[in-house]
Structure to design on (112 residues):
């Protein structure tokens, strides 16, 4: 309702200047790809929503999370947990240090 969501080159992109965090987009996404988070400024994001096992991801996708747990083991704040083959960040614990970004072998975690 705020003209903040557009499809660019086949991918949903949010204009953060217009987004109010109302959650309307997350509510309608049939694949549950959109997550509403607060407290994420200057903190990395996991740009993957895949929950397939790593071997299949390696075969089918260049940039999908393979559930290797390197990020979880590296995080000094215990802010990342890999569940169901996918990394999740707890933004209440994350300090934005960027260690997970450096260690991810698939470049799934991005600090934008
Ligand atoms: S940025 Fe640092 S604190 Fe935040 S999830 Fe990554 S490793 Fe953990
Ligand atoms: S390091 Fe990267 S590929 Fe491995 S579990 Fe974390 S996000 Fe997934």
């Amino acid at each position: 309702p705020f003209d903040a969501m557009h499809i660019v080159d086949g991918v949903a992109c949010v204009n953060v200047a217009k987004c109010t965090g109302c959650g309307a987009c997350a509510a309608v996404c049939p694949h549950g790809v959109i997550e509403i988070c607060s407290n994420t400024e200057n903190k990395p994001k996991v740009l993957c929503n895949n929950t397939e096992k790593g071997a299949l991801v390696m075969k089918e996708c260049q940039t999908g999370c393979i559930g290797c747990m390197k990020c979880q083991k590296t995080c000094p704040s215990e802010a990342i947990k890999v569940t169901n083959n996918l990394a999740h960040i707890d933004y209440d614990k994350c300090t934005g240090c960027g260690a997970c970004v450096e260690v991810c072998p698939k470049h799934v975690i991005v600090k934008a």
The two ends are 25 Å apart (CA to CA). Residues 54-60 form the longest helix (7 residues).
